Amino acid sequence: MGEAMRGLGLAPDLVLVSTARRTQETLDTLAPWEETPLIEPTERLYMASAQDLLDIVRDVAETVRSLLVIGHNPGLREFALAIAADNGADPTALARLHAGYPAGALTEFVIAGPWRALRPGAGQLMRFLAPQDLANQTS
User: What is the pTM of this model?
Assistant: First the structure.
């Protein structure tokens, strides 16, 4: 997924990552970074609900332009579904997001406005990538 992110020009300023071993392993697979982001292990992400995730993201400093959250299902999927707005969303990505959220998936949103004002329906869903998408590209 790290190579795919680099290929898409996705470079976070900040990575919030659960302190769980599996999420730390996921973070390790994203290296090397073109520009190393600030990485904050965050215990609050462990099994966080969609509302918990919303509260965590609302606490992000306004100087952060691009954020990557590495956490756990079902909270991440519920959060992504809550944030996703139909207006301007990639319809294929939206349908796939509704169908499921496998481990290691990446959901990209554009969010207008300050983090503290984030609310359900405020994110324009740009893309949804699952690990099997990357496997299909190499075969």
Answer: 0.91
Q: What share of the chain is helix, strand, coil (3-state, %, to 5)?
A: 40, 20, 40
**Is residue 38 a contact partner of residue 14, using CB atoms and an 8 Å limit?**
yes
Dihedral over Cα of 52, 54, 59, 64: its sign: positive
* CA separation for the pair 81, 58 (Å, rounded): 17
Q: In this predicted model, what pLDDT tens digit does every residue of 12-40 receive, in sequence order? A: 999 999 999 999 999 999 989 888 999 99
For the segment 121-136, what is each residue's pLDDT rounded down to a tens digit?
Answer: 999 999 999 988 887 6
Q: Which of 72, 133, 83 is CA-nearest to residue 108?
A: 83
- Cβ-count burial 7-29 (b if 16+ within 10 Å, e if not): eeebebebbbbbebeebeebbee
Q: How far is CA 7 from the centre of its chain?
A: 16
Contact (CB, 8 A) for 128 and 107: yes
Q: Which 3 state secondary structure label does DSSP give 110?
A: strand
Residue 76 is classified by DSSP as: H
Beta bridge partners of 40: 16
